[in-house]
Amino acid sequence: MVHQQDPSQSLEVEDVGSNPAPGRPIGSLIEARLSRRAALRGLVGAGAVGAFVETLLEGAQAQPLAVPREGGPSSLTFAELRQQLSQTHAVAEGYDVQMVIRWGDPVLAGAPPYDPRNLTAQAQALQFGYNCDYLDYFSLPMGSGSSDHGLLCVNHEYTNTNLMFPGIGEGRAARGRTNREQAAVEMAAHGMTVVEIRRENGTWRSVPGGSFNRRITMHTPMRISGPAAGHPRMQTGGDPSGTRVLGTLNNCAGGNTPWGTVITAEENFNGYFGGAAAETGPEAVNHRRYGVQRNATWAWGRFFDRFDLDKEPNEINRFGWIVEFDPFDPESVPVKRTALGRFKHEGATHAVSHDGRVAFYSGDDERFDYLYKFVTARAWRPDDRAANRDLLDEGTLFVARFEERGVLRWLPLVFGEGPLTEANGFQSQADVLIETRRAADLLGATPMDRPEDVETNPVNGRVYVMLTNNSRRTAQQANPANPRANNAHGHVVELIPPGAGTDRVDHTATEARWDFFLLAGKPGLDAGARYHRATSDNGWLSCPDNVAFDTKGRIWITTDGAAENAGIADGVWAADTSGYGRALTRLFFQAPTGAEVCGPRFTPDDRTLFLAIQHPGEDPGSTFERPSTRWPDFRDGEPPRPSVIAVVKRDGGEIGS
Ligand code: FEO
Ligand code: CA
Ligand code: CA
Ligand code: CA
C-alpha cells in the first residue's frame, strides 16, 4: 500500500503511526558511523547525513571483489530502462512479459469467467483474488526443482473497492460505501490463491481447476496455535475455545519454510474493525497501539458482527499473526502461529542457522515500528517433514535494537523477563504476544522507517531489510539505523549475523552487525541519498518494499510509492551486493500507473522472474468508470486488474545475465 504524506490523497489509512514514543535524539551518532572505507571503496553521495558506511566492519567477513566486467562495474547485463510514468508496464530490452493470472481469472473448477459488471462472492471465491502481493513458487512434483511446472502461491492483500464496483466513487472512502453483497465480494477477494502453473513452448499459463488449486478467503477455517491459543483474550462468541478462527486478511508479504510450507503475514488488520470499544473498552490500550479506530475503513462490521468491536470485542485479537499452511495439501487447515507475535507483519523470511534451528525475520510496517525475529526452539528435520509440523509453536521472539558502530542487539520478548511483568500489565506470554508492540516499546527497540520486506541473501548469509519511508521522522528522532529526518524515500539495511559468508552463519545469536546497503532518493537532490557512485539518472529508486535474490546473490528490489514520493513509476531495480558493482542499482522493470510491484520471485533456474502487479490504477480520482489505467487488457469499460506476470529473457537465458 502507498503511504503518503498527505492523507487526503491516499487510499491508505491504516498506517497511523501509533508508537507513542518513537525515539530519542542521537545528535551526531550518525557521524560516528562515517567510515573512511566508504571513500576508499568509491561510495559517494550528497547530503548532510553521514556518509555511506562500507560493510567491512570489524568482525564481519570480507567478501572477494568481483572482476569488473566490460561495460562497467556491474555484473548485470541488461540495458537500463529510462524512468517514465505510463499507463502500461515496461521491461528492459531483450525481455518479454507474459501474463500468468489476473484478478477474476478462474482458479477452482466451476469458476465462471471474469465479469466485471456482475461480481458475486460465490464467483470470487472460485477466482483469483485482488491485489496480489507476496508470491511464491514451489516446484512440481514437490522437491523436483522444476522451473517449468509448479505451484504459485499468492497473497491478496486488500481491495481497491473504488476500482471494483461501478458507481461507488473514488478513493478509500469507497470501502465505507459497500452494501452487504459487495462487502462479501471483498471478503472473498482477500486471502490467498494456490494455483498450478506450467511453462509450455516457452509460455507460462495457469491451470484452472488444477488438483492443488485453492482459494483461501475470509471464510476459510483456521486453527490458532502457540502460547496465545485458547487464552480468554482470544475467545469469541463464535469460538469459545479461542483456537478456531475464520479467515486471514490484509496478507501482504510472506515467506516459506525449509519444510515446504507457506507463511503469510497479516498486516493492516486494524482498518477492518471498528466500534466504541476501540477507544473505551477493556482492550483500548491494546487497540490504540495498533491504530484501531472507532470508525473502520471497511464497511464489513455493518453486515458481519465479528468486525464490530462492540459485539465481538476479541475477534480482532485473532488477526495480526503469521499464518502457516501446506500448499501441497488443499485440505490442510492453515494455522495462526502466535509464537511469532502480533503486529502488522509485512512478511516473514526464514534463515536456517548453523545448528539447524530456523530464524524468521519479520518487519512491523508502520512508521516508528520495529524489526523482529523468531528463533525456533528445535532444529528442523530435513528427513522428516511431519516432524516440522509445529516447529513454529515453540521458540523465542526477539525485537531489534540498532546501536552505533554497527552493533545490533536482539532483545527477547519473554514474559517475566525485564519489564514484561504484571507490573506492566502482562500476566502471561499470551499477553506479551497479543500486545507485542507494547512489550517491544518497554524493551527499548529501535523505531524504524517502516520495515517492509526482509530477505536473506543465500550467497552471503546477510539479511536485507527494506525500510520504505517515514516522512514524519524529525531530526530529533533520528537514530543510527534511521538517520534521515523526513525520510520520503527509505533505505535498505543489511544485517550481518555472526559467521555470515561461511557455512556456519548463526541466525540465533542475540548480537549481529548491521550496515546500510543504500539510502534511497535521487543523488544530488535528496539529502543523504547513497548508492554506488556510478548509479545513473535512471538507477536511483524510492520507497523499497519487496526484495528477492537470484542464485548469484544479486538483489532485486521492488518499490511502492515512488510516484507520490519521487515522481517516478514504481518498478524493479537490481544490483550486485558485493564487488565493484555493490549498490549500483539499475532499472529493470516499470509498473503501470498507480501500481506497486510485489513478489518478486525467481524460478530455481533464474530464467523466470514472477512479479505481482498490485493496485494498478490506484491514483487520486481513479474510479471504475474512469480509471487512470485499464492495464493489462485495456478493454473499454473494464477496470484495471491486479495480476501476476512472468518476465523471461527472449533468448531463454538467466535473468540479468
Ligand atoms: Fe502491505 Fe507494508 O505493505
Ligand atoms: Ca508498501
Ligand atoms: Ca502491498
Ligand atoms: Ca509491502
How would you explain this protein's 3D organization?
The chain has 657 residues and is mainly beta. The protein has a single domain, classed as TolB, C-terminal domain (Neuraminidase). Helix content is 9%, strand content 25%. It has 11 helices and 29 strands. The chain has helices spanning 29-32, 36-40, 121-124, 161-164, 180-189, 277-280, 284-289, 300-303, 429-434, 436-443, 562-566; strands at 90-91, 95-102, 132-139, 149-156, 191-200, 203-206, 214-216, 221-225, 244-246, 251-256, 262-266, 322-325, 335-337, 349-352, 358-363, 371-376, 395-402, 407-412, 451-456, 463-467, 491-496, 511-519, 544-549, 555-559, 571-575, 586-590, 596-602, 608-614, 643-649. The protein has a 9-stranded antiparallel β-sheet, with no helix packed on it. The protein has a 6-stranded mixed β-sheet with strand order 9-8-13-12-11-10, with no helix packed on it. Strands 1-26-25-24-23 form a 5-stranded antiparallel β-sheet, with no helix packed on it. A hairpin with a 5-residue loop joins strand 14 and strand 15 (358-363). It is globular. The model is unreliable at 1-14 and 24-68 (pLDDT under 50).
